[in-house]
């Protein structure tokens, strides 16, 4: 569980003012990053509160505002797509801030190491090797974060497309209710209550995916059946021993199937990967 300071740092890395972050956490009963972020997005145009003694100053400030005939700006109501787009931008900003901070820390460590080397604590050959390793680590971290950002975009894009498709279908059913009747299957033959309860297919909300890596190792994770296949791809990228140069591709052995790029945007439940499945990472 994240500490209060970690939650505050995450929100400030996204570009929110410290005092506004404190207010958002207080307004959402300190429930974490996501509720506070929702509140901040809805009150994006609110003025930054001044630091002080908390509730007393807030009440005094509100009373003063009412006396002067001013009113607080109403909360901004965002559509689902606008909210998701803002979340993507904020996530990109957070990743960028974290990368800049880590790069700065690593660069500082390299500078300190160079100073120790110049003072004669290690040989010049060891110095060059160490610097090369540090720069390689920085490059690998940058590649990993770039892949993480790309996967996050794909995931949100797939969710937006799914929402659009659902709204189109709902609108079509509303305009043409007769089509719904025509598409319905004929009623099944009467059966006993026992047989109907046995034949009823369970509705799964999660699926257990086992991923077999090229080196023979395996990864296991539980996903929501609504998540796209690209979410599994992101999980592999974040947990593999080596940083991949490009997103990995999956296949199944039984039945044998190689997933196309379009299928990575489809939910796992529509790809017959529920309630469990084994995916093989193609070499």
TrEMBL record:
GO terms for molecular function: K48-linked polyubiquitin modification-dependent protein binding. Pfam families: UBA_7, UBX. GO terms for biological process: negative regulation of proteasomal ubiquitin-dependent protein catabolic process; negative regulation of protein K48-linked deubiquitination; negative regulation of protein ubiquitination. One of its GO terms (cellular component) is nucleus. CDD domains: UBA_UBXN1. The keyword DNA damage does not apply. Keywords: Coiled coil, Cytoplasm. Residues 44-203 are annotated as: Disordered. Residues 2-43 form the UBA domain. The keyword Cell cycle does not apply. Residues 80-119, 128-175 have a biased composition (Basic and acidic residues). Residues 202-281 form the UBX domain. InterPro entries: UBA, UBA-like_sf, UBA_UBXN1, Ubiquitin-like_domsf, UBX_dom. Residues 57-68 have a biased composition (Acidic residues). It is found in: Cytoplasm. This is SAPK substrate protein 1. It comes from Caligus rogercresseyi (Sea louse). The lineage of its organism: Eukaryota, Metazoa, Ecdysozoa, Arthropoda, Crustacea. The gene is SAKS1.
